From TrEMBL:
<keyword id="KW-0378">Hydrolase</keyword>
<comment type="similarity">
    <text>Belongs to the 'GDXG' lipolytic enzyme family.</text>
</comment>
<protein>
    <submittedName>
        <fullName>Neutral cholesterol ester hydrolase 1</fullName>
    </submittedName>
</protein>
<feature type="active site">
    <location>
        <position position="175"/>
    </location>
</feature>
<feature type="domain" description="Alpha/beta hydrolase fold-3">
    <location>
        <begin position="93"/>
        <end position="189"/>
    </location>
</feature>
<dbReference type="InterPro" id="IPR050300">
    <property type="entry name" value="GDXG_lipolytic_enzyme"/>
</dbReference>
<dbReference type="InterPro" id="IPR033140">
    <property type="entry name" value="Lipase_GDXG_put_SER_AS"/>
</dbReference>
<dbReference type="Pfam" id="PF07859">
    <property type="entry name" value="Abhydrolase_3"/>
</dbReference>
<dbReference type="InterPro" id="IPR013094">
    <property type="entry name" value="AB_hydrolase_3"/>
</dbReference>
<dbReference type="GO" id="GO:0016787">
    <property type="term" value="F:hydrolase activity"/>
</dbReference>
<dbReference type="InterPro" id="IPR029058">
    <property type="entry name" value="AB_hydrolase_fold"/>
</dbReference>
Amino acid sequence: TFTFLFSAGKELSPCTSAAATTPQYENQGQCHLIHYLRLSHHLIVLNYLICTFDKLKSVSSEDIKITDAVFDGVEVRVFEPPAKGDESLKRSVVYIHGGGWALASARTSLYNNLCRIMAESLNAVVVSVEYRLVPEVCFPEQYHDALRATKHFLQPDVLAEYSVDPSRIAISGDSAGGNLAAAVCQQVSCTESSVLHYSSPAQRGWQVLCAAPSQGDVPPLKTEW
């Protein structure tokens, strides 16, 4: 399931409720135990092999400008399409890659090409988040990285720098990245400056279908994007 957030363009303010600022996670103690016993450290070798042979540099083309940046201490890769016609502001997607919180990278060919295609086909600025992985950190640091990068990007001056329309911003992800995208949406949407939507991955780029199969009897809602 993909998760989308549409910001109304207001500056984000901190959440006031304790539940929103300090979310509770089930089995967090087990995560720390596994981490400190180094039971997941074999993933370092596996991910090294994946990224060594599959990472791509940020090479721009005539169609898409690709740059690496740092948003509030979190590495991101930004994909920018050229301006079209009289359009001054573009829509945008913050994308969070999958990999079980332990594998893959925003710079692997799979996600690099996916975000490039997304930026070109949607004419959208795509921000792909390079959050830290297990076992370098343990959960919920992956969530914190994704949240920090997203909040940084949603600042008015940053949106202006990338010529992004504040009212047409989405957060999306696959697998573990979909989980992180949903969590980030829930945290950011605790302010009045944003509206939360859930969508099916089968949607078209300019529509939002606010009911995934896992949401039971929740009626679908279609809106222009």
